[in-house]
Amino acid sequence: MKKIANLFIFIILAVLALLICFPVLFAVTGGFSAQWELEKNLAAILGNADGLADWSILPKAPTLEPLIHLLMDSPQYFVMFWNSLKISLLILVGQLVFGMPAAWSLARFVFPGKRIISAIYLVLMLMPFQVLMLPEYLVLNDMGILDTHAAVIAPAVFSTFPVFIMQRFFRSVPEAILEAARIDGAGNFQIFLRIGIPLGAPGIVCSAILGFLESWNMIEQPMTFIKTKSLWPLSLFLPEISLSDAGLGFAAALMMLIPALLLFLSGQEYLEQGIAAAAVKE
After folding, report:
1. Which long-range contacts (CB under 8 A, 24 or more apart) does 252-259 make?
2. What predicted TM-score, i.e. pTM, was given to this entire model?
3. Domains, the chain, with CATH or none
4. What are the angstrom distances between the C-alpha of 230 and each of 67, 84, 130, 137, 225?
5. 255: which of 115, 152, 168, 246 lies 20 to 30 Å off by Cα?
6. Each residue of 145-198: pLDDT tens digit?
């Protein structure tokens, strides 16, 4: 009976995994499909044609033309790629610089108002961008940095989610180790630098991976705060694609997926630890 139950669970999980992976397969197939095949399959969706869209798991006429066109004849793609890389890396660095000390303070120090600050962090983490969009827009406008990369980077740098993740790992550092360091004459900054960061490295790496993936894929923030197309990240390259450039769009989606996929696979172990730590009830 137990084997039947396990088999049933395995089948359900396999089906869910296939459904989740279908968009990836969709992008891979489209990235290697000829333009005439994409126009035929997607005309009902993108071309205002009658009938239903059609799609096949494997392209009928595999070709590298969309990828070649993207990498050889699309300078706009490379501009947006470097914009995305610049924005994502600066957000990542900022989240680590400001997030690590904040997470360490909330995890290891006792001070008045700590519970209130933690509650505020939690509420801000749960708020969607649509709620904070107008206040952020007004603040960024007063700062004079709208329509620049800083308008996207600045709010993301102070995101509360990395603090939420790293705090769990910093809290798991044994107090005995910290007390021994204090007896040896180490100050708070030395303890944080030489003990907190090395022992909390899994949480730091986990928050860094999640932060990079979030900033790499963000759409609403740059669409709201950046109007100049030359400053757009790669995530805004795809909405500009029409049916006549469907192959280019799929190729761009495929190339955009590769860095995120490689980063996810290289840090999968840390992500699992971060998810488990975030799920632990305090």
Report:
1. 252/70, 252/77, 253/27, 253/30, 253/31, 254/27, 254/28, 254/30, 254/31, 254/67, 255/67, 255/70, 255/71, 255/77, 255/81, 256/84, 256/216, 257/24, 257/27, 259/216
2. 0.81
3. 2-63 (no CATH), 74-279 (1.10.3720.10)
4. 22, 12, 24, 20, 13
5. 152
6. 998 999 999 999 988 888 888 888 888 888 888 888 888 888 888 888 888 888
